[in-house]
Amino acid sequence: MTRDSTRHYIEKWDAEDVEAWESGGKDVAKRNLIWSVIAEHVGFSVWSIWSVMVLFMPTDVYGIDPAGKFFLVAVPTLVGSLLRIPYTVATARFGGRNWTIFSALVLLIPTVLTLVLMMNPGASYTTFLIVAAFAGFGGGNFASSMANINAFYPQRLKGWALGLNAGGGNIGVPVIQIVGLLVIATVGNTEPWIVCAVYLVFIAVAALGAALYMDNLGNQKADMRAMREALTHRHSWIISFLYIGTFGSFIGFSFAFGQILQINFIAGGSTPAEAALQAAQIAFIGPLLGSIARPLGGKLSDRIGGGKVTLYTFVGMALAAGVLVTAGSLDDAADGAPTGAIMTTYVLGFIALFLLSGIGNGSTYKIIPSVFEAKAQSLPLDREGRASWSRSMSGALIGFAGAIGGLGGVGINIVLRASYNSEANSATMAFWVFMAFYIACIAVTWFVFLRRPAAGSTGGAAPTAPEPRESTTVTA
Fold this sequence. Notes:
Blueprint: E1 3-4, E2 9-10, H1 18-47, H2 49-53, H3 59-62, H4 66-94, H5 96-106, H6 108-118, H7 125-134, H8 137-152, H9 158-170, H10 172-187, H11 193-213, E3 216-217, H12 224-230, H13 234-267, H14 272-283, H15 285-304, H16 306-333, H17 340-376, H18 383-421, H19 428-450
Keywords: Membrane, Nitrate assimilation, Transmembrane, Transmembrane helix
InterPro entries: MFS (IPR011701), MFS_dom (IPR020846), MFS_trans_sf (IPR036259), NO3_transporter (IPR044772)
GO biological process, one term: nitrate assimilation
């Protein structure tokens, strides 16, 4: 490893070289990981800024009903998810340090626009949608950050490193919700611009830290051709589908949880200002626990396999969704506002989903490098060539899976919008849909990554060489 400190450039990086790793490589990787987490953290906060802004938007002032607010928070989710595909290849093309600086500074655009718009509540709904779309810039940061850190760490430590990087970024969601809570608790729900002003400072810190302490790697190859090649492998599509259930749940519920609570508190007789404060006091807990749980999912997967952890996670998520279905059905059948017991059940069910989705985020992403590491062993390349191919494929799929997973968050808000617009005017229908999807994810995870065909049984078809199964490539 040769590092040019003046250019923040490392010409040749081999994380699998144990001697180089122990003689200083791990310190370089750790420094880049720290500032990658900080920049991604701020990106997630800006991405989810509208989940906070809707708590400052009484219908009688802004003219946007609850259904409109669900769609409003879905727009940055959609844009951020789509941006993850080009962001994935950006670090290899422009350098991890360079792109982190740029992607952090770009966050100034949606933050300033949101600040100005929230000070002018008479703007049209279309204007709100356009400004919310710019917040999607924050969602793209995840893909470039993960692809960059994937290149810095050896295979044996990827689960923990990627989990820590993603978990630290995910915490940006509850942190901005806590900032919103502090603003509502101190000055009320009439000064949302304060939240934006705070994040202008955080963005500057993230960009400056990346400029001073991060590095560009010279031997990285991740382009659109790599992404196209990664998508020729069926495991890529399967992992992306599973990530809809884990990350899609995390980001979708993060954006929607506060709004669901606010709707229920208003139904219970609270004023919009009171409901905003009550919702803000609870809403951040779920995303916080889910973010903290993500590195745990990666660590568990390093020990027992991403496939097993992912399966158990989806079983738990299906049960948690069942709890929400039960609470929602009881609430729909009763007259009047939801009781204290039903509200408690709602909160516990959602917190369980956040925790489990966080674990599942870490375990699903652990499957990615494991699968391509196994596939690389059959390639006619030397050790360095196989490692380079595995890194390239893993980095490409990290972005694509992140994009598809983010679209799950869009789906959650659209399903909730449709559920509240239905005759029942509640979220119960949406809870049924979520439970059914988690059951489908259980079946897919077991069939692809954990099922063992019966000896001698080929189902009447000619035997074929099986693709590597993730659970056989990860050891404790």
